[in-house]
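Crash report, auto-generated. Payload:
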Amino acid sequence: MKLFKTLSVAAMAIALVATSITGSTASAASSLKGKIVVNGSSALLPLTLQAANEFKKLNPKVKISASAAGSITGPQSVRKGIADIGAVDWDASQDVPGFKKFDGQVAHKVAVIPFAAVVNKNVTADNLTTKQLQDIFSGKVKNWKDVGGEDADIIVVNRAFGSGTRVNFQMKALQGTDFISKGDNYKEVKSSGDMKTAVETTPNAIGYMDLVYVTSKMKAVKINNIAPTEANVINGTYKVWGYGYYMTKGEPDGAVKAFIEYIQSSKFQNGSLKKLKFIPISAIK
Amino acid sequence: MQLETSVQSLKMGTEESELGGSIKAGSGRMLDRKNRLLFYNRSFKIACIASASFVCLVLFSILFFMFRTGVLTFRDVPMATFFFSTDWSPENESYGAFVFIFGTFALTLLTLLISVPLSIIIAVFMAEVAPKWMRNLLRPVLDLLVGIPSVVYGFLGLTILIPLLRNITGTNMGDGILAAAIVLTIMVLPTISRISDDAISVVPRKYRDASYALGATRFQTIFKVTIPAARSGIMYGVILGMARAIGETMAVVMVIGNTPQLADALFKPTSVLTSNIVMQISNVPFDSTWNNALYMMGFLLLVISLLMIVLVRLLQQKGAHR
Amino acid sequence: MKSATTGTRGMFTSDRGMNNFNNRMFTFFVWGISACIILFICALLYLILQKGLPSLTWDFIMGLPSEMEEGGGIGPALFNSFYMLLISLLIAVPLGMMAGIYLAEFAPENKVISFVRICVEGLASVPSIIFGLFGIALFVEMFQVGLTIIGGAVSLAFLNLPVMTRVTEEAIRAVPQDMKQASFALGATHLQTIRRALIPTAVSGIVTGICLVAGRAFGESAVIILTAGVTTSGEMWDFNLLSPGETLAVHLWYVQSEAIVPDAVSISDKSAAVLVFIILMFNILFRIPLWIKERKSR
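Recovered output after restart:
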């Protein structure tokens, strides 16, 4: 244990020297100082990392350490004081299906995330009503022919409980109905990437994911005759979307406040955030 | 201690004596050197004991941590429900882990059914049949296989094996314990075959010579003499492979389907202890019954693998007495 | 088998023709199955390397990862892999070797020591995910440092400690007794004997062990996802032990699971190739000195 203490001290000393060298070369554009720790949703991680990179260029004295494990770890880490910002796919200051609210935390909207129900390329059905979606994901409808497709079993691919995408899809697309939890043609996957691979490679599969992950190797179905596109989200016809939130303990100040303000600024929202295929919060009326 | 003080006083004595400097210095250094060596030896031994105790300490603190958190499960869930109920839906407060326990055993058994015969054949091939150059080439290649990240295996399983299984069998999904067992077979094959290979290689030459002298063919020698003689080593390999199969996580989670239902068919999506832990651990609130139940499942895994080690020990002792 | 009934003639003297047939079949069978498996292994390695290696560039290996544009690199993740490997080896190798030496050289044969051995083997068989959970309990919940390089490295070291111990013990035990006695006869102390005679002789086994351990640590993902996180600090050469410590194996997983860069597939192919290639290099580099030594001593 002592060895490991001395080692860590030594390494930290090296790190200090290293950062002081690199730090001095960057221009001291801002006097803002501090360390920001972000934890939580992995779906928001690319956004956070991109924002952190840009923010660090403007404020070289601020250190940002971003990580992700799962949505619920965000507000939890904030409550425990391990993280300053908890990234989460739903408003954690309210109750949602499966999760209690976190008292004393303030939610900051940072992005709009559209979700899409996706099917394998071989599925002929391309429009599903809310009722049909509810029936499919609750296991009442088991064959594609009942919802306008060919005669084949429906393979339901679901995200694991606790996934932010799952919470949002359940609330917005299924309007709160429960998922099936077992069956011969049902599986759960751990991440958006696994969902993508599963839907791409499994014939007759249906799943759902952030619109960002939809590729040309799968098909995003229309919901109630409305295609999941950015434009339809903005004009208010496509309803299956949610906000991405940053949770803080009370109102933020200092570097944390500046960072959240940077993410909410129109420069970032209309620049990198759009490039990452999220929708700016200001676009929603 | 007494000796040391007397040496000290002797040195003090010589300090003022009429003796030549060379003797004084010489004897002083000699004694210093002896003390120093003694000191090094002692402290080295103490450091070694400390390290060995540290290893035990790590194991016990792991056991302690897992148990401390896991046992809290039983505040809210009766023990019988946890172990024997097949209903795992934590969102509705039912915590029955039987599906996962059963899945773990079923998956391990199936993996061993496929991998043990293959591994032993490979081991026999390397130790007895293959020419020397091939042996020297094969062993590092098998070692290399151990080092391939399990993520890579899982990904290959998801993108190549599962579509293949689906096409061959005509099932809807292909996920299930068979797919997981095949992936695991590839992962434990090097472990079992390398250890069996070593065990077969150290069977004394004279056993084989005696067998050949009795007119046995190579086939007979291997099956009736060499393999029985190497039995305990092979068992050790099998059990280590088994431990790896039980504990493997990232590869299994990608091909098993992750559905809490009993694995009563080869192609039915199911779940095992490890895959369920890794699927859910980052998505559950700390300090919830759910979190505790996952730790309890971890503790179970730990107990299963420790039991297996005790089994190995017993086997080895039996082997030694024989 | 007929031989079983003709007891007095020994168990091997059965129908000669049948035996020869069996023997040939067996040899054929073993060659066949082995060839299949070896071909399979080679195909697997080829598949992984061929997809990634040809398109590898220096920019990819040293570059910073990108979150939205193509052409992101794996520099910090690769650096973290080596850095964490180094720290974990710095902890695991000395401790593991000393524990191994203790078990092989000093430990008396009694109940306590056989219990210690069971502990070592038990620890060796603990599933890696358990080390991850333990790491969370220790570093995230107890010390509250969050997901850091040091947390990941120490958890990795715990994972490797028992393997190192066992390998060292076996290697030292395998040294012929004569060697040890000769050293003692020359008046060497126990420590000198261990340092000058036993370890140099056992070095081949120990190095194989380190190799094994390093390979395992390099490819490990479950432990690191849970204890060191899935991000880097986004800087190259970040020696800070409290930075998040995503390694290459984790990056591979992350890119496959969550990344939204358009070239995620190519990044994961290339990362997999780099990983396998490095483990290949470990195996070769560690072994070359041993081969040379073997040649010399011959």
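Post-recovery validation: Residues 2-54 of chain C form one domain.
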